[in-house]
Write a structure and sequence with these properties.
The chain is of the alpha/beta class. It is built from 13 helices and 9 strands.
Length: about 425
C-alpha cells in the first residue's frame, strides 16, 4: 500500500540541477563530524516517580491520555519530517530520506540508539504502531512497510497538506493491525516553511491567508473523521537564522536551491525584512487558529507546541555556528539536530498551556522531563467554552412583554404631551 507518491523528479530534479557541475570527488567528500558512530549509546531515560505503563483502562476522553496509552504514532510535513539529509555525510546522501531517525517519527533501534518522539513513546508502549523503520529515496514511491506512518513528503507546501491528511486517514482506516475506533493516535505536524521559502515566487499562492486556509481544512478533516487523536502542531521555526549556516563549501550552495527567497536577499534589504515579517505572521496566525479552540472535542485535540518559535542556532564556544547540527547541504538538520527537536517536542507535550518551554538556543542540550506524578497525561489545552444558548420562547416571553409595555408607555406620553 503506497503512502505517498512524490511529484516525480520535482525536488530531485532541482537537486540534480544544483549539483550537475560538482565533481565526483566533491560529491563523495565525507564530513567526519556528521558520521554517527554505531557504538554510541544514550544513557537510559526513566521516570521512576511515574507509572510508565498504560492506564488501567483505555481512556475515553482526550485529557486523560498518557504516553503509554498511545497505540499509534504518525507524522506529517515536508523534508524536515521526511528526514532529508539527516544521516548524510556527503552531498550524494542529501536526497536520501532518513525517515527512521526523523525527530517526530523515527523508529530506528531504541531511545539509546537515537532520540526521537517515537522512540520515547516506545519506552512507555513498546508496541506502538507507526514508527518509521528505515530510509527511503526521494522521488520514488514507498510502502507503509518502509515509511511507517511518516506520510511527510519532501518539498510539500501547505497547499499539499490536505493530500497528506487524506492519505494518512485512508491508511489508518485500512491498516488491519489498528483498531481505528478505539486506539489513541498521536500525530505530529510541521509544515509551512516551504511556503515561506517560495513566497517571493508567488505571493498570492503562498500567502498567510492561504496557509491558514489549508491548515484549517486539513485539521477539520481529521477532527471529522478520526476518533481518539491528539495532533501536535509544531510551531514554524524562526527561519532567518538559517542564513548563518554557510561555509565556503559546494554543499552549502544547495541552500539557494532549497530556499532562495530566504538565502538570496541582501542583508538589511527590503526583501529580507518582508520575509522576516511574513515568517512572524505565519507564526502568529497559526497560534491564533490553534488557540481558537475550534479543534477540540471529547476525543480529539489539536495542540500548538511552540518550543521552536524563536530558537537561535547552536553555537560553538567561539561563537561560530555548530555545523554538526546540519547536513552537508547546510540547511536540513542532521541526526544531532533532530534529537534536540525530538526532546523539545516531548517536553512541550507534558507542559501546560502558558508554561511550555520556548527554546532560546540549541547550543545547550535540552534536558528531557518526565510526566508529572500528579498529572501524567499529555496536556491538550483548555476546552473552548460552549456558546451561550439562544433564548427559548419560554424565557424570551417576559422580555417581549416588557418591551411592549415600554412602547405603550412611550406612546401614551407622546399623546398626552399634545
Amino acid at each position: 500500500m503506497a503512502l505517498y507518491q512524490c511529484a516525480q523528479g520535482t525536488w530531485l530534479e532541482n537537486f540534480n540541477e544544483a549539483v550537475k557541475d560538482i565533481s565526483q570527488e566533491d560529491l563523495h567528500k565525507v564530513r567526519p563530524d556528521l558520521m554517527w558512530p554505531d557504538t554510541f549509546k544514550h544513557p537510559p531515560f526513566q521516570c521512576p516517580d511515574v507509572d510508565m505503563g498504560p492506564s488501567p483502562s483505555v481512556p475515553t476522553t482526550v485529557d486523560r491520555v498518557k504516553a503509554g496509552d498511545i497505540k499509534v504514532i504518525a507524522a506529517m510535513g515536508d523534508s524536515l519530517t521526511s528526514g532529508i539529509a539527516a544521516n548524510a555525510s556527503t552531498i550524494l546522501g542529501v536526497p536520501i530520506e532518513y525517515r527512521h531517525v526523523s525527530y517526530s517519527i523515527g523508529g530506528h533501534g531504541t531511545f539509546q540508539d537515537v532520540i526521537t518522539l517515537a522512540n520515547l513513546v516506545k519506552l512507555f508502549n513498546p508496541n506502538v504502531l507507526g514508527p518509521a523503520p528505515t530510509w527511503t529515496m526521494n522521488g520514488y514511491p514507498a510502502t507503509v512497510e518502509e515509511t511507517g506512518f511518516n506520510v511527510a513528503v519532501t518539498g510539500h507546501n501547505s497547499l499539499n497538506f490536505s493530500d497528506q491528511t487524506r492519505s494518512m486517514i485512508d491508511t489508518f482506516k485500512n491498516y488491519s493491525a489498528m483498531n481505528f475506533k478505539e486506539d489513541w493516535k498521536l500525530v505530529s505536524v510541521l509544515i509551512g516553511m516551504n511556503d515561506i521559502c517560495d513566497h517571493c515566487k508567488n505571493k498570492t499562492l503562498f500567502s498567510v491567508d492561504n496557509f491558514i486556509g489549508h491548515m484549517t481544512e486539513s485539521l477539520q478533516m481529521m477532527m471529522d473523521e478520526v476518533p481518539r487523536m491528539i495532533v501536535n502542531i509544531v510551531q514554524i521555526l524562526k527561519m532567518d537564522s538559517l542564513r548563518e549556516v554557510t561555509l565556503p563549501t559546494l554543499g552549502c550552495q544547495l541552500q539557494k536551491s532549497f530556499c532562495s527567497c530566504l538565502v538570496l536577499p541582501e542583508e538589511n534589504s527590503t526583501e529580507l525584512a518582508e520575509l522576516k515579517d511574513l515568517n512572524r505572521e505565519f507564526q502568529v496566525r497559526l497560534e491564533k487558529l490553534i488557540h481558537s479552540g475550534r479543534f477540540q472535542k471529547d476525543d480529539f485535540a489539536v495542540v500548538l507546541q511552540p518550543y521552536l518559535t524563536s530558537t537561535e542556532l547552536p553555537k560553538l564556544p567561539n561563537g561560530a555556528v555548530d555545523f554538526s547540527f546540519f547536513g552537508p547541504d547546510c540547511f536540513h538538520f542532521s541526526v544531532k539536530g533532530h534529537e534536540e527537536l525530538a526532546k523539545g517536542l516531548w517536553n512541550n507535550m507534558f507542559q501546560p498551556e502558558g508554561e511550555k518551554d520556548i527554546i532560546a538556543s540549541l547550543t545547550k542540550p535540552i534536558e528531557l522531563i518526565c510526566p508529572q506524578k500528579d498529572h501524567p497525561y499529555i496536556y491538550v489545552g483548555p476546552r473552548k467554552a460552549p456558546p451561550s444558548p439562544s433564548p427559548t420562547p419560554e424565557n424570551s416571553a417576559p422580555q417581549e412583554q416588557a418591551l411592549l409595555t415600554l412602547m405603550a408607555l412611550v406612546s401614551f406620553l407622546v399623546l398626552f404631551s399634545y
